[in-house]
Specification:
- By secondary structure, this protein is of the alpha/beta class.
- 26% of the residues lie in helices and 25% in strands.
- It contains twelve helices and 25 strands.
- The strands form five sheets. It has an eight-stranded mixed β-sheet with strand order 10-9-8-3-2-1-23-24. The protein has a seven-stranded mixed β-sheet with strand order 11-12-13-14-15-21-22.
- Helix 6 packs parallel to helix 7 (242-254) and helix 11 (379-389) crosses helix 12.
- The protein is globular.
- Bound molecules: zinc ion (ZN) (2 copies).
Length: 451
């Protein structure tokens, strides 16, 4: 095993997963003999054929480097509840046994995940309100509330005597996010006075020019489409996008329909949103067991499986195997979700099998309307962020090489003095000297389960 030990004058950033790829984020910060983990997520390998069925292998970053020295791991911080940030923790926690720090909604999701693997009683979860300051070992931390596509997206200000880092996590600038607070430039520009050595930043959409579209505009687009429909409408959507689900529930109310959730992960997420106070009261919902009895024009169902996953609800519906709801000619299946690269073929098969039955489909590329919007910053938003925070160094992450290179270019144009790009396993040195030690740790992915 590699021997690396941060000293008192050191501030290190060591990504084990999520830098050079989109998914399975696992980041370490090192200072004064201790480590801080930021996020612990999963990813999926390319679909593989297993017998007659296509399946996805669930993977995460190999945590061996930190598991081997877990007494030096002061704590684990989770920035938000997306699977690429939280999904590996229930599988890996036994190897760290460190306390977890997160915000209330993310804690609610984490407790449900830990309960499934029998760890709920073992893991100490420190639930910290958004915006709060707290310390973990030698690291002084503060949540910086951002906007994204899930409740409570929190960037992290990390302060040490050796230097300060603003770790953005996933974010966009959304002035109308449907739920949660609007994006606040004022909060971000206060970071400028806190002498940010490095900003470690989301690169997902760094190749896209302009500004991402607001969740509020997505609501308007979905309302426009759904209000013209006469038959059943089924929307494929990610279950963690609570704002999108609230929008759909409001659209149901505005169009005389009832919202129905088809699929366990959707039901679980909405129950977590209710428990955390993110689900507005009084929205018209119907139990999945009753949706089949409603007249077609009163049905607005949301279903899992927008990526064409074989066992999810949309695929079952396409094959007449959804127990609760049978679609008919003229009904509409609307995809309010991105296509995760690698899933194009399975989505195409799903769309084709709906069309073969006369069931209409609507995907993002079929319309000018923003029926899906991204939760990550486009170029103009990245430029704004660099201008507000004014770090000495930009470290692009959460992207493939091309995304990270584009992010670095934007940082340069925004007058950030230095840009450091690297990959998982590279050690970013951010103390008195600044630089990257390539391949300081061997970065690998490990398989967790098949899904
Ligand atoms: Zn992410
Ligand atoms: Zn995210």
């Amino acid at each position: 095993m590699e021997q690396l030990m941060p000293m008192q004058n050191d501030l290190w950033f060591l990504p084990l997963g999520g830098t050079g790829e989109i998914g399975m984020n696992l980041n370490l910060y090192g200072h004064d003999g201790q480590w801080l983990m930021v996020d612990c997520g999963v990813s999926f390998n390319e679909p593989i054929e297993a017998g007659s069925e296509r399946t996805h292998e669930l993977v995460c970053a190999d945590p061996d480097f930190i598991a081997q020295q877990r007494s030096r791991l002061a704590g684990i911080v989770i920035t938000h509840a997306h699977e690429d940030h939280i999904g590996a923790l229930p599988f890996l926690w036994r190897r760290f046994q460190a306390p977890v720090y997160t915000t209330p909604f993310t804690a609610e999701i984490l407790r449900r995940k830990l309960a499934q693997v029998g760890l709920l009683e073992d893991v100490t979860i420190h639930e910290l309100p958004m915006g709060s300051r707290f310390s973990v070992g030698p690291f002084e931390l503060q949540w910086i509330t951002l906007t994204h596509s899930i409740p409570e997206p929190s960037g992290l200000m990390i302060e040490t005597p050796a230097g300060n880092v603003f770790h953005t996590g996933d974010w966009k600038i959304d002035h109308n996010p449907v739920i949660g607070d609007k994006f606040s430039p004022a909060v971000l520009s206060t970071l400028r006075s806190r002498d940010v050595t490095a900003m470690v930043c989301d690169s997902t959409n760094a190749l896209k020019t302009g500004h991402s579209v607001s969740e509020g505009d997505c609501y308007e687009a979905l309302l426009e489409v759904i209000s013209q429909e006469q038959g059943r409408v089924v929307v494929g959507c990610f279950s963690s996008n609570i704002a999108r689900l609230v929008s759909l529930a409001r659209i149901a109310q505005a169009t005389g329909r009832y919202l129905c959730l088809l699929g366990r992960s959707l039901q679980n997420m909405v129950s977590a949103a209710k428990a955390s106070g993110y689900w507005p009261a009084g929205l018209p919902m119907v139990d999945s067991a009753h949706v089949g009895y409603l007249p077609a024009h009163e049905v607005l169902a949301v279903a899992t499986g927008s990526q064409g996953e074989p066992r999810a609800m949309l695929n079952r519906m396409a094959h007449g195997n959804c127990f609760d709801l049978t679609l008919e000619k003229g009904d509409l299946v609307l995809f309010s979700a991105m296509i995760i690269p690698g899933n194009e073929a399975s989505i195409e098969r799903l769309v084709a099998s709906f069309k073969a039955q006369g069931i209409r489909t609507l995907q993002s590329h079929d319309t000018e309307l923003p029926i899906h919007v991204s939760g990550h910053p486009y170029q103009a938003e990245l430029a704004n962020m660099y201008d507000w925070v004014r770090p000495q160094v930009a470290i692009p992450t959460h992207g493939e090489a091309a995304h990270m290179a584009a992010n670095a270019r934007i940082a340069k144009e925004a007058h950030v003095p230095r840009q450091l790009t690297g990959l998982n396993g590279d050690l970013f040195v951010l103390g008195q000297e600044i630089g990257v030690r390539k391949k300081a740790v061997t970065a690998k992915r490990i398989a967790l389960a098949r899904n």
